[in-house]
Amino acid sequence: MSVSLQKGQRVSLTKPGGGTLTRVRMGLGWDAVVKKGLFGKGKAQSIDLDASCLLFDAGGNLADAVWFRQLRSKDGSVVHTGDNLTGEGEGDDEVVNVDLGKVPANVTQLVFTVNSFTGQDFSQIENAFCRLVDETTGQEIARYELTGSGRHNAQIMAKVARDGAGWSMTAIGAIANGQTFQHLLPEVKQHL
Questions:
Q1: pLDDT for 61-111, tens place per residue?
Q2: Could you tell me the domains of the chain?
Q3: How many separate helices (H) and strands (E) can be counted in the chain?
Q4: For 133-153, what is the mean pLDDT?
Q5: 122 vs 145: CA distance, rounded Å
């Protein structure tokens, strides 16, 4: 059963019946708003949203980053499946897979961000979401609708953090501006 998260809400990543999740997938999906033309005919836009996963240590230092220019973490625990330049298609447009059991012990938090590399703001994007899926079963654990269209072109979506012996996910949903994750780092650090 999936949990629909609200901004700031936290969900444990403990499996029903005990045990913790070991492999998760963070999916990002979106559609471009169709612009009406001169005679009412809609014209599709291409909007390049990018999903990134930032790995932080206990001191809040960036230990590694997985994004469209580095599709794999140095240790191989986080893998981005590739850059979608348009948002076309159904379901997840970009996917970041995480093997939680392989995340180095010094990494305490994984922060997922989304930004518009081409600079369009979120008023031109609809049906945007991020979701966390148990990779071993294919079951959706949590979904966060990226609502709040506006003049921002980035969003700090969620974080997955060590929680005792397991992990928990917190929906952040903070708006930001920046074309890559590097531009978002000052805002991201406020949520660690």
A1: 999 999 999 999 999 999 999 766 555 666 678 899 999 999 999 999 999
A2: 3-34+42-189 (2.60.60.30)
A3: 1, 14
A4: 77
A5: 13
Q: Report the side by side order of strands in the sheet with 62-66.
A: 10-12, 166-176, 154-163, 107-116, 49-57, 62-66
Q: Which two tokens stand for residue 119?
A: 């600079």
Task: Map tokens 């625990």 to a residue.
Answer: 77
Bridge pairing between strands 107-116 and 62-66: unpaired
Closest-CA residue to 152 (of 44, 72, 49): 49
Buried b / exposed e across 48-62, counting CB within 10 Å, b at 16+?
bbbbbbbbbbeeeee
The string of pLDDT tens digits covering residues 16-50 is 666 677 888 889 888 877 776 666 566 667 777 88
DSSP-assigned letters across all residues of 10-34: EEE-BPTTS-B--EEEEEEEEEEPP
% of the chain exceeding 70 in pLDDT: 79
8-state DSSP, 89: S
Closest CA to 21 of 146, 140, 191: 140
Q: Are 110 and 170 within 8 A, CB to CB?
A: no
Cα separations in angstroms, 86 against 21, 71, 107, 115 = 31, 18, 32, 13
In angstroms, the Cα distances linking 136 to 10, 66, 140 are 22, 22, 11
* Tokens, residue 179: 């074309």
